[in-house]
């Protein structure tokens, strides 16, 4: 079997563009990949235009490791977010083709299920005014939808520090969610790398009465010793990793023991196998993995397969019940969350097909997502 063509397709939403690839073979089988490139869609398409003819066309999709290694190594430059995202697209699609060729779900080809269902947490649900009353109502909608966990960034456009009034307002939002959702609901607090260590530690201590399940990216990702300073000073688990793009960048993270949950994004990290390798390495340090997933239907399905076969997998992030839920229409057999869990996939490959007419009906948007603008959390169109 040989890969004969790779077709990128971009579907726009008011705050994210989702890039799909359809990988075609000479035997008629096709595979799908997907990534949400924040603010860099054109760079990704440019990378694919150069890399696919060199490293992908004419290759056997069963030789997935060879394709990935060639794409990562043979350009000589240090692979970053754009290149690793392009690699992820092709790697996912190769797994999809292999699963279809063998008539097996991908997770069964990676060792089989280690759990009977996959716990999910909601994100993208708090697109409301930043008041305790509105956040509580939004949290109630999450609970009523069957979720038992959710994540929020309550900190507005904060950077490095917050004045006292803004800090108290942010803490009040978490308090309102805890009160509405109840004591047995997991609340994960996203910090998006906003704060210096002193501020992150202060906020973490303010949040302790509400028992957050983790604090995510409390400081900017470039300085792991700053992250360790926070981890050593607080009692809440620390999660990080969405802006790490290769497993080699994780060595110091592990050696310093400066986090408890690793959150690499398989769609920016080289694909399903790369994330699985990283999870096995993390397990040697007794760390859990909870991959970042801001994607639409195809990469969400890929994450479900990874979760099914990974022993130290904690929980899967899910946007598509709340932020632009209509994106589910891009595929058949979208993996649904029922009573807070995804079911194990039972269809070959990734288990879905792309509705290209639907994608074409939602063309690429000219949007720029800025986490440091006022009301960014509403995820409304920003031109």
Automatic annotation (TrEMBL):
Key word Lyase present in the record?
yes
The family database entries (Gene3D superfamilies) matched by this protein are listed as:
Enolase-like C-terminal domain (3.20.20.120), Enolase-like, N-terminal domain (3.30.390.10)
One molecular function GO term is: lyase activity
Listed A to Z, the keywords are: Lyase
Q: Which residue numbers delimit the Mandelate racemase/muconate lactonizing enzyme C-terminal domain?
A: 132-237
List the InterPro entries: DgoD-like, Enolase-like_C_sf, Enolase-like_N, Enolase_C-like, Mandelate_racemase_C, Mandelate_racemase_N_dom
By its UniProt entry, which SUPFAM superfamilies does this protein fall under? Enolase C-terminal domain-like, Enolase N-terminal domain-like
Annotated protein name in UniProt: Mandelate racemase/muconate lactonizing enzyme family protein
Q: Which organism is it from?
A: Paludibaculum fermentans
């Amino acid at each position: 079997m040989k890969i004969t063509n790779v077709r990128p397709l971009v579907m726009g939403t008011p705050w994210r563009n989702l890039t799909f690839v359809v990988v075609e073979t000479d035997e008629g089988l096709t595979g799908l990949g997907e990534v949400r490139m924040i603010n860099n869609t054109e760079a990704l398409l440019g990378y694919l235009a150069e890399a696919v003819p060199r490293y992908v066309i004419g290759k056997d999709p069963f030789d997935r490791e060879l394709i990935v290694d060639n794409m990562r190594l043979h350009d000589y430059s240090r692979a970053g977010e754009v290149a690793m995202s392009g690699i992820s697209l092709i790697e996912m699609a190769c797994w999809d083709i292999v699963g279809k060729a063998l008539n097996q779900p991908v997770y069964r080809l990676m060792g089989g299920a280690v759990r009977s269902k996959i716990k999910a947490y909601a994100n993208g649900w708090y697109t409301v005014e930043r008041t305790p009353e509105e956040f509580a109502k939004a949290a109630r909608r999450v609970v009523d939808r069957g979720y038992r966990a959710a994540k929020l960034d309550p900190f507005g456009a904060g950077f490095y520090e917050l004045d006292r009034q803004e800090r108290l307002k942010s803490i009040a939002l978490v308090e309102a969610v805890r009160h509405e959702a109840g004591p047995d609901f997991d609340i994960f607090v996203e910090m998006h790398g906003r704060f210096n260590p002193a501020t992150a530690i202060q906020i973490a201590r303010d949040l302790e009465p509400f028992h957050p399940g983790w604090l995510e990216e409390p400081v900017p990702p470039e300085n792991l010793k700053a992250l360790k300073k926070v981890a050593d000073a607080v009692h809440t688990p620390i999660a990080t990793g969405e802006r790490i793009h290769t497993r080699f960048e994780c060595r110091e993270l592990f050696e310093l023991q400066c986090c408890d949950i690793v959150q690499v994004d398989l769609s920016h990290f080289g694909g399903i196998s790369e994330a699985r390798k990283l999870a096995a390495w993390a397990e040697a340090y007794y760390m859990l993995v909870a991959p970042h997933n801001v994607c639409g239907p195809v990469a969400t399905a890929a994450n479900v397969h990874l979760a099914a076969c990974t022993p130290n997998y904690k929980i899967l992030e899910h946007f598509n019940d709340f932020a632009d839920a209509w994106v589910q229409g891009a595929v058949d057999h979208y993996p649904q969350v029922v009573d807070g869990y995804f079911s194990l996939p039972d269809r070959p490959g990734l288990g879905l097909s792309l509705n290209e007419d639907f994608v074409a009906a939602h063309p690429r948007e000219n949007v720029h997502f800025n986490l440091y603008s006022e009301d960014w959390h509403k995820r409304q169109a920003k031109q």
